[in-house]
Amino acid sequence: ILLDEIDKLGSDYKGDPSSALLEVLDGEQNSTFTDHYIDVPFDLSKVLFITTANDPSQIPGPLYDRMEIIELYSYTAEDKFSIAKKYLIPKQIKNFGMNSKMLRFTDAAIRALIADYTKEAGVRTLDRTITKIIRKVAVKFADGFEGKFTVSPSNLEELLGAPKYKTAKLDFEEMIGAANGLAWTSVGGEMMQIEVAVLEGSGKLELTGSLGDVMKESAKAAISFIRSRCEKLGIDSDFYKNKDIHIHVPEGAVPKDGPSAGVTMTTALVSALTETPVNKSVAMTGEITLRGKVLPIGGLREKSTAAFKNGMKTVLIPEGNKADLDKVNDTVKNAIEFIPVSNLDEVLSISLVNKGKKRVDKINNVSKKNINENITDTKTNGVYCKEI
Questions:
Q1: Is 152 a catalytic residue?
Q2: Does the annotation mark 369 as catalytic?
Q3: Three-state DSSP class for 301?
Q4: Which residue among 80, 243, 280, 303 is the active-site one?
Q5: Residue 141 — pLDDT band, cuts 50, 70, 90?
Q6: Which residues contact 385 (CB under 8 A, 6 or more apart)?
Q7: Which of 72, 81, 106, 307 has a Cα-to-Cα distance from 4 of 20 to 30 A?
Q8: Which of 258, 259, 284, 288 has its CA nearest to residue 338?
């Protein structure tokens, strides 16, 4: 027996359906279940009950405890691509009385449909979008078009209009004070760059980007960790007194929360405070503690797909998530090097470019330049001195 959308159960003065289900779903009690309407006992002990829910947090606790939980993840972009190419497109072409000799979708067009015209966990909207394209092409054939029509990225806008979900192009240059973080959403993973600006001031901390309480706490934990390691990191120990720090996560209108941005925030902060660039091909995720430990996170499968889609070569993951690599798509695993880390020292040694070296070289080069430009020879008591 399938009980669909059990998280939508409502209760009011007329009764609470979840209370009746407590007995129905309990294998120790449902052998003598009695329906109070017809007053007839039923043996439900051999019945297999399957329930579905979009949001498990909305299921009453006692009812949730009686269930064995099987999580079905949202489709990745690669999953959607395979489903569209092998099933959705051939099905709709056949439904419109056409064949592959009349209409063809390029692989690039399918990927553009997924990225720019749909944003969902499943493929319903993708199916409707493909149908819309085929319907317009069918009209062209009805109007006398002859030959083979090819759907490509160049004519998608003509068929569907402007892209609905054009993602902002991320800056993948080696920059100071910016690190590539990975986020989980209900429709898949996303990559976001966390930016940090260090300004002259009086020790204020500014957090922008529609951040939730947990994410704000991660930023405070990152600053406390850095304060405890100032000497080792080569940072002024009074930075929290004489500097203002502004942490920003782009797409400010989109609410963001969760502890897994801690590693990314710490990396961006250290980069800004030491003026050391962050490796542009490294993405990261993980929760942090005040002692610099990196704790496990959720949604690794979706996050790794986002890293793959954005061309990352290396992804830093918590040591505790090594077992979750089995769930990651093989295509993603072959393209990305996953490095498990257990503490922030490992994260910084991998993610920062020649940690500290560029800054020292930069300072040395400036000093040499000043010396060469400002040297004058003077004679003092028979000894030649160089004045700078």
A1: no
A2: no
A3: helix
A4: 303
A5: confident
A6: 377, 378, 379
A7: 81
A8: 284
